[in-house]
């Protein structure tokens, strides 16, 4: 692994940071989250047209830029610094890889160029358990029996979906829904993925009141909605594809959390140099220095883990040139690199934001100050993708770190 950035990667980070500095300040952020969509469409258009962000990790054959998951993760680090609300996670990180991996040639040719251009936003309508970050995803989490969720039924040559799912990142506003549904009953129980237009008949969408307003969430009700099967093979291993996508998404989310943690730490350091107590800046007190030094070390450790996870994800998705097969690489690594990095990133963000609230004193917890938004991002992502201890426990179980062994008598 080469820990240095390429000139192209540095340019992506620099250009994106400049654009977000101009277009996504505190006032723009608060205005965007109060809109029905929860993000600024003009900013999304700028990110797509000027930087090609939605297609950053898509092949050039489908209108993408042809970079890897590493560049997408580095871009997410910059969006995390300003908590930029956008459909990037749902569209480019969760849905696009699944369409690329499982879709037919016709589906890829139809959907991926529009995703890469930013014209088509998408959302993955599946419970968080489907991403296999905190447990095995081969159960009945998608629906069926007493599990609720969404169920699929054949109707002639097509499919209809019935059920509900939520919370779904950007599910209330995305133009395309990729829905995980259960079918086959008890005899041939399986989970499949279906394409549904966001404005299709029978789709009822509402926006959740979320703890983290910068990560807009939706709730979906599907009432006998006509759907198109993703891919041509009903026997596709959808849980494995979702687990691979989940680990890649966790690597991107880890970089996003690191960006947010680094920025809130910077703001805290700036503030303690200005705030005075007993006639001197509180940043000069040894206790304050020690607390911020501990946070700094934690953020840097999380950054190293996030960068490694992004690199490992790119290695796994590099095709035959980098590994014998994606399936083989994922089995060899246990598919838990991203989950571990996400756990460390969220822990660093929570610590950094918590210290920021404490050291900002009376204004730190107020609605008017931006520090509370970073703390809510950490708490909201743990609610969505799994608490830190469960992310680590699942990785440990997958690696058999604590397997019981026989003790000789």
From TrEMBL:
The protein's Enzyme Commission number: 1.-.-.-
Acyl-CoA dehydrogenase/oxidase N-terminal domain segment(s): 6-118
UniProt domain Acyl-CoA dehydrogenase/oxidase C-terminal: residue ranges: 251-395
One GO molecular-function entry: oxidoreductase activity
First-tier enzyme category under EC: oxidoreductase
Cofactor(s) needed: FAD
Recorded family membership: Belongs to the acyl-CoA dehydrogenase family.
The protein's name in its UniProt record: Acyl-CoA dehydrogenase family protein
């Amino acid at each position: 692994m080469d820990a240095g950035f390429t000139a192209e990667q540095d340019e992506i980070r620099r250009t994106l940071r400049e654009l977000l500095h101009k277009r996504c300040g505190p006032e723009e952020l608060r205005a965007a989250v109060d809109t029905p969509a929860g993000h600024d469409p003009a900013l999304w258009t700028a990110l797509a047209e000027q930087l090609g962000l939605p297609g950053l990790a898509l092949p050039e054959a489908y209108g993408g830029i042809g970079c890897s998951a590493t560049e997408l993760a580095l871009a997410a680090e910059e969006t995390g610094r300003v908590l930029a609300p956008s459909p990037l996670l749902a569209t480019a990180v969760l849905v696009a890889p699944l369409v690329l991996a499982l879709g037919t040639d016709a589906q890829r040719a139809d959907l991926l160029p529009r995703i890469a251009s930013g014209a088509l936003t998408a959302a993955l309508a599946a419970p968080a358990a489907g991403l296999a970050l905190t447990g095995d995803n081969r159960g009945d989490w998608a629906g069926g029996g007493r599990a609720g969720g969404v169920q699929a039924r054949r109707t002639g040559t097509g499919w209809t979906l019935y059920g509900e799912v939520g919370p779904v990142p950007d599910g209330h506003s995305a133009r395309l829904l990729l829905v995980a549904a259960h079918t086959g009953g008890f005899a041939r129980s399986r989970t499949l993925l279906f394409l549904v237009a966001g404005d299709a008949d029978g789709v009822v969408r509402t926006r959740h009141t979320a703890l983290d307003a910068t990560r807009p969430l939706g709730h979906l009700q599907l009432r006998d909605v006509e759907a198109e099967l993703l891919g041509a093979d009903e026997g596709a291993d959808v849980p494995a594809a979702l687990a691979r996508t989940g680990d890649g998404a966790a690597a991107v989310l880890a970089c996003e959390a690191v960006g947010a943690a680094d920025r809130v730490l910077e703001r805290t350091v700036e503030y303690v140099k200005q705030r005075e107590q007993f006639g001197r800046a509180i940043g000069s007190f040894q206790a304050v220095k020690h607390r911020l030094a501990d946070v700094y070390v934690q953020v840097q450790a999380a950054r190293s883990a996030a960068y490694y996870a992004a690199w490992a994800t790119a290695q796994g998705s590099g095709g035959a040139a980098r590994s014998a097969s994606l399936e083989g690489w994922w089995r060899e690594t246990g598919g838990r690199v991203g989950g571990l990095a996400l756990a460390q990133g969220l822990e660093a963000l929570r610590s950094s934001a918590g210290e920021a609230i404490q050291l900002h004193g009376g204004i730190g917890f107020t609605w008017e100050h931006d520090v509370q938004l970073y703390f809510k991002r950490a708490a909201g992502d743990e609610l969505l993708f799994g608490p830190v201890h469960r992310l680590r426990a699942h990785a440990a179980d997958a690696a058999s770190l604590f397997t019981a062994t026989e003790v000789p008598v």
